Amino acid sequence: MHPKSPEQMEAIKAKMEKIFLFSSLNPIDKKKILDAVLGVTKNAGDVIIQEGDDGDNFYFVEKGSLNCTKFLKKDDPEPTFLKEFGPGESFGELALLYNAPRAATITCKSDTCELWSLDRNTFNNVIKTAVQKKREKYDDFLERVEILKCMEKYERTKLADAFKEQWFEEGDYIIKQGDKDGNEFFMVIEGTCIASMTMEPGKPAQKVKDYHPGDYFGERSLIRDTPRAANIIAQS
Length: 236
Ligand code: CMP
Known about the structure:
Helix content is 30%, strand content 27%.
Protein backbone atom coordinates (compact mmCIF):
# COMPACT_ATOMS: atom_id res chain seq x y z
CA MET A 1 0.00 0.00 0.00
CA HIS A 2 1.21 3.48 -0.85
CA PRO A 3 -0.57 6.32 1.03
CA LYS A 4 -2.21 9.03 -1.09
CA SER A 5 -3.96 12.36 -0.58
CA PRO A 6 -7.74 12.56 -1.27
CA GLU A 7 -6.94 14.60 -4.43
CA GLN A 8 -4.59 11.89 -5.66
CA MET A 9 -7.22 9.21 -4.96
CA GLU A 10 -9.76 11.14 -7.05
CA ALA A 11 -7.24 11.62 -9.89
CA ILE A 12 -6.40 7.89 -9.93
CA LYS A 13 -10.07 6.88 -9.87
CA ALA A 14 -10.80 9.18 -12.82
CA LYS A 15 -7.98 7.66 -14.87
CA MET A 16 -8.93 4.10 -13.90
CA GLU A 17 -12.43 4.68 -15.33
CA LYS A 18 -10.88 5.12 -18.77
CA ILE A 19 -8.74 1.99 -18.71
CA PHE A 20 -10.49 -1.04 -20.14
CA LEU A 21 -8.20 -3.49 -18.35
CA PHE A 22 -9.86 -2.36 -15.13
CA SER A 23 -13.43 -2.32 -16.44
CA SER A 24 -14.38 -5.86 -15.43
CA LEU A 25 -12.98 -5.56 -11.89
CA ASN A 26 -15.31 -5.49 -8.88
CA PRO A 27 -15.14 -2.56 -6.40
CA ILE A 28 -12.94 -4.53 -3.96
CA ASP A 29 -10.32 -5.26 -6.62
CA LYS A 30 -10.47 -1.65 -7.85
CA LYS A 31 -9.71 -0.51 -4.30
CA LYS A 32 -6.71 -2.87 -4.18
CA ILE A 33 -5.33 -1.21 -7.32
CA LEU A 34 -6.02 2.26 -5.93
CA ASP A 35 -4.04 1.43 -2.78
CA ALA A 36 -1.19 -0.28 -4.58
CA VAL A 37 -0.30 2.22 -7.33
CA LEU A 38 2.72 4.42 -6.84
CA GLY A 39 3.24 7.88 -8.39
CA VAL A 40 6.31 8.19 -10.64
CA THR A 41 7.61 11.38 -12.29
CA LYS A 42 9.88 11.19 -15.34
CA ASN A 43 11.67 13.79 -17.47
CA ALA A 44 12.00 14.19 -21.24
CA GLY A 45 14.16 11.38 -22.68
CA ASP A 46 13.86 9.07 -19.64
CA VAL A 47 13.26 5.45 -20.66
CA ILE A 48 10.43 3.93 -18.62
CA ILE A 49 10.40 0.57 -20.40
CA GLN A 50 13.24 -0.87 -22.49
CA GLU A 51 12.41 -3.39 -25.23
CA GLY A 52 13.81 -6.82 -24.31
CA ASP A 53 13.94 -6.23 -20.53
CA ASP A 54 11.97 -8.27 -18.01
CA GLY A 55 8.67 -6.70 -16.97
CA ASP A 56 8.24 -5.38 -13.45
CA ASN A 57 5.42 -2.83 -13.56
CA PHE A 58 2.29 -1.81 -15.44
CA TYR A 59 1.75 1.94 -15.92
CA PHE A 60 -1.00 4.42 -16.64
CA VAL A 61 -0.52 8.07 -17.52
CA GLU A 62 -1.67 10.96 -15.31
CA LYS A 63 0.03 13.80 -17.21
CA GLY A 64 2.38 14.22 -20.17
CA SER A 65 3.12 12.27 -23.33
CA LEU A 66 5.32 9.27 -24.10
CA ASN A 67 6.67 7.65 -27.25
CA CYS A 68 6.38 3.93 -27.96
CA THR A 69 9.03 2.54 -30.36
CA LYS A 70 10.09 -0.94 -31.44
CA PHE A 71 12.78 -2.66 -33.52
CA LEU A 72 10.52 -4.39 -36.04
CA LYS A 73 13.44 -6.31 -37.64
CA LYS A 74 16.53 -7.58 -35.86
CA ASP A 75 19.03 -5.54 -37.86
CA ASP A 76 17.05 -2.30 -38.18
CA PRO A 77 19.46 0.58 -37.41
CA GLU A 78 16.69 2.62 -35.74
CA PRO A 79 13.50 1.58 -33.92
CA THR A 80 10.14 2.33 -35.58
CA PHE A 81 7.74 4.79 -33.94
CA LEU A 82 4.51 2.94 -33.04
CA LYS A 83 2.37 5.38 -31.11
CA GLU A 84 2.16 8.16 -28.54
CA PHE A 85 0.64 7.61 -25.10
CA GLY A 86 -1.19 10.40 -23.21
CA PRO A 87 -3.29 10.90 -20.06
CA GLY A 88 -5.71 8.02 -19.34
CA GLU A 89 -3.76 5.52 -21.43
CA SER A 90 -1.85 2.52 -20.14
CA PHE A 91 1.12 0.41 -21.19
CA GLY A 92 3.39 -2.37 -19.98
CA GLU A 93 0.74 -5.07 -19.67
CA LEU A 94 2.12 -7.49 -22.29
CA ALA A 95 5.26 -8.62 -20.44
CA LEU A 96 3.20 -9.22 -17.29
CA LEU A 97 0.30 -10.98 -19.02
CA TYR A 98 2.47 -13.35 -21.06
CA ASN A 99 5.68 -13.57 -18.98
CA ALA A 100 7.53 -12.23 -22.00
CA PRO A 101 10.31 -9.66 -22.49
CA ARG A 102 9.14 -6.08 -23.01
CA ALA A 103 7.77 -5.82 -26.58
CA ALA A 104 8.57 -2.13 -27.10
CA THR A 105 10.42 0.84 -25.59
CA ILE A 106 8.52 3.64 -23.85
CA THR A 107 10.24 7.02 -23.47
CA CYS A 108 9.07 10.24 -21.82
CA LYS A 109 8.39 12.77 -24.62
CA SER A 110 7.05 15.86 -22.82
CA ASP A 111 9.22 17.87 -20.38
CA THR A 112 7.83 15.76 -17.54
CA CYS A 113 5.47 12.80 -17.28
CA GLU A 114 3.43 11.80 -14.25
CA LEU A 115 2.62 8.09 -14.18
CA TRP A 116 0.96 5.63 -11.83
CA SER A 117 2.84 2.37 -11.59
CA LEU A 118 1.39 -0.96 -10.46
CA ASP A 119 3.73 -3.74 -9.31
CA ARG A 120 3.80 -7.15 -11.00
CA ASN A 121 2.44 -9.02 -7.94
CA THR A 122 -0.69 -6.90 -7.61
CA PHE A 123 -1.18 -6.96 -11.39
CA ASN A 124 -0.93 -10.77 -11.43
CA ASN A 125 -3.16 -11.29 -8.40
CA VAL A 126 -5.90 -8.85 -9.29
CA ILE A 127 -5.99 -8.39 -13.07
CA LYS A 128 -4.08 -11.06 -14.97
CA THR A 129 -6.52 -13.99 -15.00
CA ALA A 130 -9.60 -11.92 -15.87
CA VAL A 131 -7.84 -10.12 -18.73
CA GLN A 132 -6.21 -13.25 -20.14
CA LYS A 133 -9.54 -15.10 -20.19
CA LYS A 134 -11.25 -12.25 -22.03
CA ARG A 135 -8.43 -11.85 -24.59
CA GLU A 136 -8.30 -15.62 -25.24
CA LYS A 137 -12.06 -15.80 -25.62
CA TYR A 138 -12.27 -13.08 -28.26
CA ASP A 139 -8.91 -13.40 -30.06
CA ASP A 140 -9.98 -15.91 -32.76
CA PHE A 141 -13.30 -14.17 -33.22
CA LEU A 142 -11.73 -10.73 -33.71
CA GLU A 143 -9.30 -12.10 -36.30
CA ARG A 144 -12.27 -13.12 -38.46
CA VAL A 145 -14.16 -9.80 -38.32
CA GLU A 146 -13.76 -8.11 -41.72
CA ILE A 147 -13.81 -4.46 -40.53
CA LEU A 148 -10.91 -5.20 -38.11
CA LYS A 149 -8.62 -6.92 -40.64
CA CYS A 150 -6.67 -3.70 -41.30
CA MET A 151 -5.88 -3.27 -37.60
CA GLU A 152 -2.58 -4.31 -36.12
CA LYS A 153 -2.85 -7.46 -33.96
CA TYR A 154 -1.89 -5.54 -30.81
CA GLU A 155 -4.66 -2.96 -31.28
CA ARG A 156 -7.19 -5.72 -32.07
CA THR A 157 -6.30 -7.55 -28.87
CA LYS A 158 -6.84 -4.36 -26.89
CA LEU A 159 -10.34 -4.19 -28.34
CA ALA A 160 -11.14 -7.42 -26.50
CA ASP A 161 -10.49 -5.58 -23.21
CA ALA A 162 -13.20 -3.07 -24.11
CA PHE A 163 -15.86 -5.64 -25.00
CA LYS A 164 -18.99 -5.91 -22.91
CA GLU A 165 -21.00 -9.06 -23.59
CA GLN A 166 -24.75 -8.53 -23.91
CA TRP A 167 -27.37 -11.24 -24.44
CA PHE A 168 -30.74 -10.78 -26.19
CA GLU A 169 -33.72 -13.05 -26.75
CA GLU A 170 -35.68 -13.60 -29.94
CA GLY A 171 -37.69 -10.46 -30.77
CA ASP A 172 -35.63 -8.12 -28.56
CA TYR A 173 -34.79 -4.75 -30.17
CA ILE A 174 -31.03 -4.23 -29.94
CA ILE A 175 -31.24 -0.93 -31.85
CA LYS A 176 -34.33 1.18 -32.62
CA GLN A 177 -34.61 3.19 -35.83
CA GLY A 178 -34.52 6.95 -35.14
CA ASP A 179 -32.82 6.59 -31.74
CA LYS A 180 -30.51 9.58 -31.28
CA ASP A 181 -28.64 8.44 -28.17
CA GLY A 182 -27.05 5.28 -29.52
CA ASN A 183 -23.41 5.14 -28.47
CA GLU A 184 -22.60 1.44 -28.98
CA PHE A 185 -21.19 -0.59 -31.83
CA PHE A 186 -22.13 -4.29 -31.86
CA MET A 187 -20.57 -7.49 -33.16
CA VAL A 188 -22.51 -10.75 -33.33
CA ILE A 189 -20.74 -13.52 -31.45
CA GLU A 190 -23.52 -16.11 -31.39
CA GLY A 191 -26.97 -16.31 -32.99
CA THR A 192 -28.60 -14.19 -35.68
CA CYS A 193 -30.33 -10.80 -35.99
CA ILE A 194 -32.15 -8.89 -38.72
CA ALA A 195 -32.26 -5.23 -39.71
CA SER A 196 -35.65 -3.71 -40.53
CA MET A 197 -36.55 -0.20 -41.71
CA THR A 198 -39.68 1.89 -41.87
CA MET A 199 -39.48 3.38 -45.35
CA GLU A 200 -42.58 5.61 -45.09
CA PRO A 201 -44.22 6.95 -41.89
CA GLY A 202 -47.16 4.76 -40.78
CA LYS A 203 -46.12 1.77 -42.92
CA PRO A 204 -44.79 -1.44 -41.30
CA ALA A 205 -41.03 -1.91 -41.13
CA GLN A 206 -39.49 -4.18 -43.80
CA LYS A 207 -36.63 -6.60 -43.32
CA VAL A 208 -33.50 -5.35 -45.14
CA LYS A 209 -30.62 -7.51 -43.88
CA ASP A 210 -29.56 -10.62 -41.90
CA TYR A 211 -26.66 -10.73 -39.46
CA HIS A 212 -24.63 -13.80 -38.50
CA PRO A 213 -21.67 -14.42 -36.16
CA GLY A 214 -18.73 -12.20 -37.19
CA ASP A 215 -21.06 -9.52 -38.65
CA TYR A 216 -21.29 -6.08 -37.07
CA PHE A 217 -23.76 -3.21 -36.93
CA GLY A 218 -24.29 0.15 -35.24
CA GLU A 219 -21.15 1.76 -36.66
CA ARG A 220 -22.98 4.22 -38.96
CA SER A 221 -24.43 6.53 -36.27
CA LEU A 222 -21.13 6.54 -34.40
CA ILE A 223 -19.13 7.52 -37.47
CA ARG A 224 -21.65 10.07 -38.79
CA ASP A 225 -23.19 11.20 -35.50
CA THR A 226 -26.71 10.66 -36.90
CA PRO A 227 -29.83 8.86 -35.52
CA ARG A 228 -30.03 5.08 -35.91
CA ALA A 229 -31.02 4.28 -39.53
CA ALA A 230 -32.67 0.89 -38.87
CA ASN A 231 -33.99 -1.46 -36.21
CA ILE A 232 -31.85 -4.43 -35.29
CA ILE A 233 -33.85 -7.31 -33.83
CA ALA A 234 -32.61 -10.58 -32.33
CA GLN A 235 -33.83 -13.60 -34.35
CA SER A 236 -32.51 -16.62 -32.49
P1 CMP B 1 5.19 -4.49 -22.64
O1 CMP B 1 5.69 -5.43 -23.68
O2 CMP B 1 5.06 -4.99 -21.25
O3 CMP B 1 6.10 -3.15 -22.63
C1 CMP B 1 6.07 -2.33 -23.81
C2 CMP B 1 4.63 -1.90 -24.03
O4 CMP B 1 4.37 -1.13 -25.21
C3 CMP B 1 3.74 -3.13 -24.27
O5 CMP B 1 3.73 -3.94 -23.09
C4 CMP B 1 2.46 -2.44 -24.66
O6 CMP B 1 1.77 -1.99 -23.52
C5 CMP B 1 2.96 -1.21 -25.44
N1 CMP B 1 2.69 -1.28 -26.90
C6 CMP B 1 2.02 -0.35 -27.61
N2 CMP B 1 1.92 -0.67 -28.90
C7 CMP B 1 2.53 -1.86 -29.05
C8 CMP B 1 2.76 -2.72 -30.17
N3 CMP B 1 2.31 -2.42 -31.39
N4 CMP B 1 3.42 -3.87 -29.96
C9 CMP B 1 3.87 -4.16 -28.73
N5 CMP B 1 3.69 -3.38 -27.63
C10 CMP B 1 3.03 -2.23 -27.79
